[in-house]
């Protein structure tokens, strides 16, 4: 295709798609390099709401772009074009944690501990600067070909004040990785990212998420109502995973304690 964003980024091909938009492989004609571009699409809202979401997405992507951490994907540029944000990022040659689990099955507890340690370190660095992720899940954890663990998709604003719910009651995002407080309509907080990390590590070591119903509604009900079944493959990781999955944010395992247990 011959689409250019901001007059310099030539879109080559889509390499991923989700509820919040499309990720493109693109070529930066100014700096002569291949990049990834997230085309953020907000659907099901009126123009005023879309404009508000676009502004917040751009603001938060810029804040994420100031993060300097080996486990945070580098944000090169943020552009608004065609009425929506485009976030230009480092192209990380990798497979997502979700893809690895889907293709190869559950990971060994030791591997999961290393992944958890690096993602948690990235989250702690972000939280220290006031940046929340809001969408930690296996699809957003990249296992790079060079051995790095990279957390991507910082700064993507969710619908309805980050509650994960649209005005019509529909879900945005993956409810299996959305903490109870957000499903209850409360705003995101650092502890929300920690719950999502716990659910992600549970999936990595067990091969399935801690909550999975026959439908989105059934999964949401389970997150809000049920205690997670303790993992059977996690070994020494069990206390940290279960601590992060505590339903109450106030009782959830703190990040510093989780970091000690993961190392």
Automatic annotation (TrEMBL):
UniProt keyword Nucleotide-binding present: yes
EC numbers for this chain: 2.7.11.1
Keywords: ATP-binding, Kinase, Nucleotide-binding, Serine/threonine-protein kinase, Transferase
Stretches assigned to the Protein kinase domain: 9-263
GO MF term list: ATP binding; protein serine/threonine kinase activity
Pfam family, one: Pkinase
InterPro entries: Kinase-like_dom_sf, Prot_kinase_dom, Protein_kinase_ATP_BS, Ser/Thr_kinase_AS
Gene3D superfamilies in UniProt: Phosphorylase Kinase, domain 1, Transferase(Phosphotransferase) domain 1
Top-level taxon of origin: Bacteria
Keyword Cytoplasm (UniProt): no
Record: residues binding ATP: 38
Residues annotated as signal peptide: none
Protein name: non-specific serine/threonine protein kinase
Protein's organism: Nonomuraea terrae
